[in-house]
Amino acid sequence: MAGETFTYPRDPDQEQGREWWLPAPPDRAVVGTAKMNRNQAGNGSHVASASYMVDPAHAGRGIGRALCAYSLEWARDAGFRAMQFNAVVETNTHAVRLYRSLGFTVVGTVPEAFRHPAEGYVGLHVMHRPLV
Ligand SMILES: CC(C)(COP(=O)(O)OP(=O)(O)OC[C@H]1O[C@@H](n2cnc3c(N)ncnc32)[C@H](O)[C@@H]1OP(=O)(O)O)[C@@H](O)C(=O)NCCC(=O)NCCS
Fold it and tell me: Cα(62) to centroid of ligand 1, in Å?
């Protein structure tokens, strides 16, 4: 923290930062987050990627859909030609269904590439959606 924008003490550790930014209910808190980035460097940098996490206590209320839709808009506005997810666990049915409903297709599945703690070896989908 540069100390120019908040009244928080300078240089908090991770736990303090978490307490300040993610207050316990009934205070407001971050319930979902998205990370957006280029999928590859150099001549692969025209394809975007993204990841999402929604607090399980708030799942199924459209937050993941809103985050994913926003990241697609962000990627299109930033000039990316497609969005690609490299490793969607095939048993993550909520995520796979969400991405399909927003125009992604499974372009391939790497067999048994993920060691699921309950299901054993399962596939990883590569999912793709053109933006142009
Ligand atoms: C995948 C994830 C981001 C979806 O977020 P979300 O806010 O729950 O998603 P939404 O409410 O927008 O719903 C997306 C779809 O999943 C379904 N869904 C999500 N959670 C559900 C639940 N607990 N029970 C039933 N359906 C659920 C919704 O019904 C919806 O499908 P539909 O619109 O076709 O009915 C979230 O579950 C998550 O953070 N999972 C753990 C991390 C993860 O898997 N990230 C993605 C890695 S590729």
Answer: 8
